[in-house]
């Protein structure tokens, strides 16, 4: 008779030495649970094999399918459909649409509350029973959130990265977990501790770049863009990597070694002071109105300065000078007859041999010339006569010289004294 496999009906019970308690190796069709004599009575740690090739381990003593966890196999890993939703937490508690208090989850040992969620994130409930995917729509309070059924419900082999896997111990809840929905329950494939990121090395071809980061970037290309953008930013600001202030300035307006905000604050204060000095208000684009007639209203500063410049240039320019060694009649100053009608000179004259002998006087004169006719006559007045020291000879006269556009009126002086000096200033010319 040929050899065949050894047969055991229902279960194999593996006991400890001289013990009545151990674990069982069970077999059946479909998921375990519900067989009070065998499956429900099996000790924690027992294994169950079904006719579909699935393996289960009993994680918790007691009756019911929820006490068993199906073990992931190669097909689970190959056929996973990774979902992009950010699942903030997974709990074994059931949830209904509406207000939910995460602090009340029976398996919540990490003090998870409403503040840990954000609108648009997700929650998986009843993970060991009838799992459901919920979208967070409102952060109601520090403890409560509002959820609605996800528009794309769970399907077989949907896999997620869960930020907080609440059925774990409190310490493990701070890490992430990879989970998959097998069509009936959520299975945890692995824990993920992102501290392993300290071991990720950049490639030898790493080169800083620039530009916006997109979904097509790898982690390295995204870091390259961040690196390059930071380099460009520090260059544009005028500082170097690692600098914590703006360095030194050549002027005295901006303080050295301060932050960008502090420097901008200084510029703002100076700008406000200038605005106050100009007599304008925030947002003004001109200087407003003036009570006089020289500066036009509603002009900018350049326009107002041009008005003042034009008015000043239109004023007669005072002319002064000195003529020395006068004995014979000498011309002291002249002006064009066609340009002006009247003139006034202030004069000081002193004897060069005895400079403490001085005279001062003013002379004004007017002629009858016009732009179209030469002057033929003039009149003059001498006033404000003053003298100190001994008297000496110094005679002043006015005459007309030349014709046409070159005709001039001249102030002249002569002296019989052995040399006098005349200092003058032409103060008014009209």
Model description:
13% of the residues lie in helices and 33% in strands. The strands form 4 sheets. Strands 6, 7, 8, 9, 10, 11, 12, 13 and 14 form a 9-stranded mixed sheet that branches. It has a 5-stranded mixed sheet with strand order 1-2-3-4-5, with no helix packed on it. A 5-stranded antiparallel sheet has the order 15-22-17-18-19, with no helix packed on it. Among the domains are: 11-70, no CATH class; 74-195, no CATH class; 319-429, Sandwich (Immunoglobulin-like). Strand 3 (47-50) and strand 4 (55-58) form a beta hairpin. The longest helix has 19 residues, at 219-237. The protein has 430 residues and is α+β, with helices and mostly antiparallel strands. The protein has helices at residues 74-78, 219-237, 260-278, 301-314; strands at residues 11-15, 22-28, 47-50, 55-58, 68-70, 81-82, 87-90, 98-100, 122-125, 132-139, 145-149, 158-165, 176-181, 186-192, 319-326, 330-336, 342-351, 358-367, 378-388, 395-401, 408-414, 420-429. The relative contact order is 0.06.
